């Protein structure tokens, strides 16, 4: 929820100057930074600090550093959102490579991969968090899968995302190809990223509990982006949720 609220703020609601102030406050991570913000952002910022402090109290004392790593990942995400806002403000048209480098992070999945590790107790160590905080290929590929699947359903639905151009649009412009060719390329890249996730199971034995969580998280992406953007328009999840938790199973 916090990530969605912050994403919408940077994308749609805040001016570029407010975006800069919000990022400055999040990087400071202190109640004294509240005064930097307009009233409507002060409420969000105070609640953000409260939630992270609450999580810190909930985990075991020896695991409080877990929350510190999650906070740093959230601060990184804020900086990525600001970069996207700056591009939009400047009417900057990024290359396909630059777009993917930023969007794979700003989609939020690498941040959530670190968040998934909080509270895992003895299954993770400080070294595990250091590994994840370096955003290894497995977390980047998780982000790319979410980003590319989101872009495909948004483009096919005829509705652009409200922020910077999608990966499909960037590829079409840079390589002067049709949308069909661009989508074919994107699907090929998706296959490569799924392979990266599978390879991670064999390459990161010491981090296997985290790798499995990251892969399980990536495996949820088709639920949200297989045909329509069910993350943004959650009415598309209605039938799935009802079939799992409401309707009886035929005997």
Automatic annotation (TrEMBL):
GO terms for biological process: terpenoid biosynthetic process. One of its GO terms (molecular function) is terpene synthase activity. This is Terpene synthase metal-binding domain-containing protein. Pfam families: Terpene_synth_C. InterPro entries: Isoprenoid_synthase_dom_sf, Terpene_synthase-like, Terpene_synthase_metal-bd. Residues 1-196 form the Terpene synthase metal-binding domain. Keywords: Metal-binding. Coiled coil: none annotated.
């Amino acid at each position: 929820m916090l990530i969605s609220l912050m994403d919408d703020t940077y994308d749609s609601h805040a001016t570029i100057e407010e975006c800069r102030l919000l990022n400055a406050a999040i990087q400071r991570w202190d109640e004294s930074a509240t005064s930097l913000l307009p009233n409507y952002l002060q409420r969000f910022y105070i609640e953000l600090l409260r939630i992270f402090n609450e999580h810190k109290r909930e985990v075991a004392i020896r695991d409080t550093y877990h929350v510190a790593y999650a906070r740093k990942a959230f601060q990184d995400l804020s900086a990525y959102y600001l970069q996207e806002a700056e591009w939009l403000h400047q009417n900057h048209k990024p290359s396909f490579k630059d777009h993917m480098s930023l969007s794979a992070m700003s989609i939020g999945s690498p941040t959530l991969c670190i968040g998934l590790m909080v509270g895992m107790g003895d299954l993770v160590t400080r070294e595990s968090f250091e590994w994840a905080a370096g955003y290894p290929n497995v977390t980047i590929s998780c982000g790319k899968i979410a980003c590319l699947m989101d872009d495909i359903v948004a483009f096919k639905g005829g509705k652009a995302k409200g922020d910077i151009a999608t990966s499909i649009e960037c590829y079409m412009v840079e390589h002067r190809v049709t949308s069909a060719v661009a989508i074919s390329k994107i699907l090929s890249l998706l296959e490569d990223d799924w392979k990266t996730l599978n390879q991670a199971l064999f390459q990161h034995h010491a981090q296997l509990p985290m790798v499995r969580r990251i892969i399980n998280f990536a495996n949820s992406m088709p639920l949200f982006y297989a045909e329509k953007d069910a993350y943004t328009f959650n009415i598309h999840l209605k039938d799935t949720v009802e079939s799992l938790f409401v309707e009886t199973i035929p005997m």
